[in-house]
Design goal:
Four copies of one chain form a homotetramer. The first copy, chain A, is α+β, with helices and mostly antiparallel strands. Chain A is built from eight helices and 16 strands. In chain A, the strands form five sheets. Chain A has a five-stranded antiparallel sheet, covered by helices on one side. Chain A has a five-stranded antiparallel sheet with strand order 9-8-10-14-11. In chain A, strands 5-6 form a two-stranded antiparallel sheet. The longest helix of chain A has 23 residues. Strand 11 of chain C pairs antiparallel with strand 11 of chain D, so a sheet runs across the interface.
């Protein structure tokens, strides 16, 4: 398998299967001299960790990060930051049934066909457990991006949507809600929806919106590595994601140019922001915002028909401990991936013109 | 500027400004011994080229590709394929007004801020003229992918949508319509819509759907380089794109797991295909399909207010020759980028297991 | 710091400071289904490990490799192989003196200037301890390259040289000698030389020759990534290396073309092999051989003058435990790096022509 | 073929066969706003071009570079710099004999075996004609590196060596000599040697020494991308190169540590410079110097025995126009490759610490 690295200059390479000994990663390219706030990293890990509330999986992982290199006397050395998270609460017996069967809409079938040999336990490498490493790296990227704030929140669960623009929400209150929806009334409805489906052994999809403020003008490399193309790749690489749109998004495709254009004002801001803070792939200083669609979790606590490795129809029943809806826990992952994208472009932008050298 | 390369093993690097001497590129990593059908490449270029119909820009570029290396006696040498397309019908006078002003929702402002020094003529490097190089490389990638068919079509213009699933359309007839919509009745409405807006000096957005058939099982590198993450990046890197979704997409986020899961059948296909042919980032052999949202063209044939480089409000009027809607010409670009993604994964998949070595 | 990855398809990324908690790495791109012989890996580690004989450093590191992912039921999964080696016998007090002084011909000064902030203990990231990770990855690469044999040996210590061509040596006996010289008489002289210098608190340089047999024809990517260019980079990236030559090397530069050319025979071998098994950057099936020059170890057990961080002259005395000559322990490192280069080209060569797809 | 790109941030990708329509390349990552001196580029091209003197090949190529993008109003745009050099004086008939035979010590055999299909004319992609693109990119890199001087010269031809340290030579006079040896008496002997061999239809090898002054402290990325490892790869990727050494090089391997160490002085220079300006892979501010070995040109104007594609012994006679010794023309190529390495590290060093951001 290739494709276990993300980023060009600020680069994360990760490893680890869901029920192996450990997961972990290496962050290469973080500049020297950055003070590292370990508590802030731990806080992000707690936001992602399983077992954090009644609407998430009950797998209980402390998800403590061990840094093995690259940080000395509280500051980055400029050398690669190696880290590891032990897998503790694994229960491989939950997975014996799927050793030879393919769960519907899971990666069991494709891994089996592609690699021949697979670690079926908890989905192995295809498990979202891998995203814990993204959160570690993203938490460090956030510290590099000091003045930029990256705030994601759950904007829908099933067909329960927040019906306000993000400007009318207090994004600092997102984590007050276990579903991570900053609108109190909607949050309540979302939780009810999830609990009801959980009771039925069913699951639901949802969307996350992310808002990035205070991005300096000039980040992003036009043509193939446009800011929004990298953000899109980053988000689509998160487990269960089915779609990405930024600024006016799919709605913009229904608009006329005379409605859609953002007019420049004399202070170099724009009167509207359908561009989503990005023009020609480069940040223009306005808020960057985008929306990410997550499909419903494929593992149901219901009996489903499927086939086994010989192609014979079999029945499987959901075991293991799974989230009825991934979006609450995916909020810190979305933020982490956004931070990785921005950190990379931030470094690269330092060498865009001879004046900045 | 970095970010002018796309792909890892089958890699395109491109160059060129809209009104410079030429645009072109280098394709590195195409295997030796591939018979090249130059007519097929030319045909793709004709599908993208300006001036092809009454609803596209009247800029008249023959867009003839000169291959400079890498092909000998009709077959690839395995060496880099260099190519060049001269810019012929440029009319830099059209752009003198915007030398010092920033067109709304264009890249003028961000390029100016990022690079200090810019070629304003026709948008320079930010122009969609650059996509001609993608079509050249994509046409070669298609020839490498012999049995795989990649078919894009216009699925909406403004709020005029095709209201049928793609399975009910004859995708071989897409090019019969100048708007590249395979549904006759809808095509007619789309053309009317575009002509009406063109008459008003206005523009419109739209969407393109792309369907890929006969993909072998196993393409895609899970984790960061999932098949759909790379497709998403590829599409989002095309000018004017605001969103990407595959399979069930944003609709999937509203569904329950019990509705969404694709059941495996004994022939290893699935009964439904909400997964969009991709599970865990790897192709599963079903059709891959996705949808791409394009914003309305930002250049209007109307007077607009904006600011100049000193921050003063000025009025500009659209000049130059522009499309009232990009989606008809973007169809071959979407196909080309999809072909680049697949060609790259196809090569990489040859070294996934020791059995394939 | 960037540059902690080696290879394109078979890629090692490493981390770790000499006296930090652990060193380790991630191998990405190893094909699935490869049976892993852990004993063979351990054996390579023993060949490199400190404290293995009377002529190496007495630092006592068991250098046990913990594999954390990527191997399941004895075979590679195709997923990234994460591994870790704990640092055990570190004695940071040995290094308190150099916390603020720069050892001559060490990286202390340049790290201090480049990064501002450094881990001085044992040289931190600049220590050759990092090469243990290369040996792990190289040992796996060797297993992938089954039929290819890679054999390095010490060809000189100071001015004590083996005076025979490698064809006259039994390379299977290299490890019989603690100095890893397969010629018995020369080995004895080399050991005497090293012991004498060690007694004086002094050190010596040396060279290693490496011979690679059974390489298939066709490995290597001409132009920038020629086989010998990658081998050269690989070797020059090993600590203390000052030079690299392959085939006729520097002697070849004194020859005439009529003396130097290798004549092809009807069995497609060549009568001589001044090309060193590589023509135009591509392996031609003959033995690949090259020679690597190592400078004398910079840390002396003598008093030396140097400067401290304020620029003032100070005297330092060698502490810590160091090798009087690195070449005996560098033999497995040279082999490991050669294996990484070959594994990468071996994978890449599988997609060179459409016939191999 | 992969491997047609060099560099990470300042990156050259090249294309072109010796007797195809053109050769050329794309330079991606050159910062915006750099004033380009086209005459200086042309001058470097003249230094490399064939037909420049009585001791070089008589192929007459004007080698005029056409820049197609990336430079506007005399300054770089930050966008990719595309360029092209037409092949003019090609005489494919000279090569009909080798269409089916393999010239000794050439790449004909390995290309044929690796790719199946090859352009035999003038060696196709394996020809040193490709290095013209390196000189273009290197000339631009030199302009980016304003204060750093990179000066190469011929230090030996066959066994005729300059017997002085480089400090005793006036490197500004190198080009006064057609053999590019700055020592007048030695230059004369070298020219005599070459002319004598040329008269016999024979060829000779030689070495080039390169000295880089005024490199700032801190360039180079330790571990795999050490400054000297990248320089070594760069040099070894030039046609006909067999060896590379820097600083004390192979001689250093014969020395004792007490002789070899460079003592730091209070001004942060070192009293000697056996380190060759690089410690731990990072420049220390002293002169960087290295030596490159070139084998004798393989094409002789004599009859040689070889085999054809069927494995049968045949006789071939040298045709085409070839250099009797490559080193005079390789001097600007060595400088160009050194400039590419330094430009890349220079850019990267701007993001090494948070203080430089």
């Amino acid at each position: 398998m290739a494709g276990n690295s993300f980023g060009n200059l600020f680069k994360l390479t990760s490893f680890g299967e869901s029920h192996g000994e450990a997961i972990g990663g290496i962050i290469d390219g973080c500049p020297a001299g950055l003070k590292i706030d370990l508590n802030a990293i731990d806080l992000e890990m707690q936001r992602r960790r399983p077992g954090q509330s009644s609407i998430t999986t009950s797998r209980n992982e402390p998800d403590q990060v061990h840094f093995l290199s690259g940080i000395y006397e509280g500051k980055t050395l400029g050398t690669p930051i190696g880290f590891m998270i032990r897998n503790k609460d694994h229960n491989p017996k939950d997975y014996s049934e799927i050793e030879s069967s393919f769960r519907p809409s899971h990666a069991d079938f494709t891994y089996h066909k592609k690699y021949g040999h697979r670690d079926h336990r908890g989905g192995g490498r295809s498990s979202a457990r891998e995203t814990a490493c993204r959160v570690v790296a993203g938490a460090i990227a956030k510290q590099l991006l000091k003045n930029i704030t990256i705030q994601a929140f759950v904007s829908s669960v099933g067909d329960v949507f927040i019906d306000k623009p993000y400007q009318d929400l207090d994004l600092s209150r997102t984590d007050d809600s276990i579903v991570r929806c900053p609108d109190k009334a909607t949050s309540k409805k979302m939780i009810e929806r999830i609990e009801k489906l959980k009771g039925l052994g069913d699951t639901t999809g949802g969307t996350i919106t992310c808002v990035i403020k205070n991005t300096p003008i000039g980040l992003g490399e036009p043509v193939f590595d446009k800011m929004h193309a990298q953000l899109g790749k980053a988000m689509l690489s998160i487990n269960a994601v089915k779609g990405f749109e930024y600024g006016s998004g799919f709605c913009g495709a229904q608009m006329k140019g005379s409605e859609h254009n953002d007019q420049f004002l004399e202070d170099e801001t724009t009167s509207t922001n359908r561009s989503g803070g990005i023009q020609g792939g480069i940040s223009n200083g306005m808020d960057i915002y985008f929306r990410v669609a997550f499909k419903p979790v494929a593992t149901l606590m219901q009996t489903q028909e499927t086939i086994d490795q010989t192609g014979k129809t079999v029945k499987i029943e959901g075991k293991g401990r799974h989230d009825p809806c991934v979006v609450p826990r995916a909020v810190p992952i979305v933020e982490a991936m956004a931070a990785l994208v921005l950190a990379d472009f931030y470094l690269l932008n330092n060498i865009s013109t001879i004046n900045s050298l």
